[in-house]
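job 3f2a | input accepted
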Amino acid sequence: MGAQRTIRPRAVAICFLLPLLGAAAAIADETPAKRPFALLVPPAQKELADSLVVAAGSGLLDLDVELFMVDVEAALRPPPDGAVEARAIARNAGAFAAIWIDPAEGGTVCAVAAGTAAGEAFVRRVGEPDPDAQVEAMAVIIRTAVEQILAAAREPATPATPVIPAPEAPPTGSRSPPAAPARAPPDARRQEPVPGDRDFGLLQETEYAMHVASKQLGVSHGVNLRLGATVPYGLAAYAGYTALSPVAVRGALGDLELTRHPFHVGFKAHVGEGLVRGFGEANLVVDYLVPRLSSLAPDLRATDTEPSILVSALAVVGIGLHVLAPVTIYAAAGAEIPFNRTAYVIGSGDRVERVAAPWPVQPWVLAGLMLDVL
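job 3f2a | predicted structure (374 res):
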């Protein structure tokens, strides 16, 4: 009688599972990898970026793309100015394309593929004042940008259009551009500090000015007008003139009226990129002082009343509110240190009265409007 062999249930299960596992592996190999799209996020847009990744990500599920965030130091300008920098960041992060938001004038969605020519970019203004509606509109625009970039990638490449070399050659006869480089690990996406979002521009400032030279002379009010130019890294250089009201002091021997004509040049450094921004200034002031004597004692006459030049340094710190893309309102306080103070004396012989002696440190209060002309 022959030996009987028992078929164990575990062996049967393995026989059925092996073909299924093989089929699953084959399907996984044929599934195309999702193309990574980098959302460039400056510090001022962290909250907006979190909402966008959720809103836009759900709308990209059918496009085989993955949206991830890359931190940058400051917001990029719209194309063509910011396109070169955006492509460099996308290539360093292993992304197929870069998407960023220009915060000016209600927001503009910008996108560019990492390997396209310099003139090829996607720009679409949002135009929604409400924050919730703005996020929804941006999510829809981001999907449109992704669709256009993917459609352009499927078109035949022309000799004049540079492409990114792929790690693996495409299949023979394929008309698609080379595949995007492998996605970099999260640690590799951290970028080096990026220069400010603005290089050069023209500024115009109009501000109320209040100055106190001494207790005897009292408070002088006026208007400060100046023009400036922005330079890289949040700096600005400017020149201006302050029209101040005259100040007067009454003495026992006569009255003194003093009119100032201060011209100044200086530099300003901005701190921060959000709605509220700080700044500091260093100024050189050249002041044309014009004294005038009146109501003199009967036995006195006016002499040595020629105008004089006062040179001083003025340091200012303040805070501004960036209400619109070209407009900032601000308030500041400053301290002026004269290098050659002039004391004013009325009298003759033993009859001498010191009517005005400016302080060694003189306070300023400023408040005004800055307009970004260009």
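job 3f2a | Confidence is low (pLDDT under 50) at residues 1-7, 22-31, 157-164, 184-198.
job 3f2a | closed
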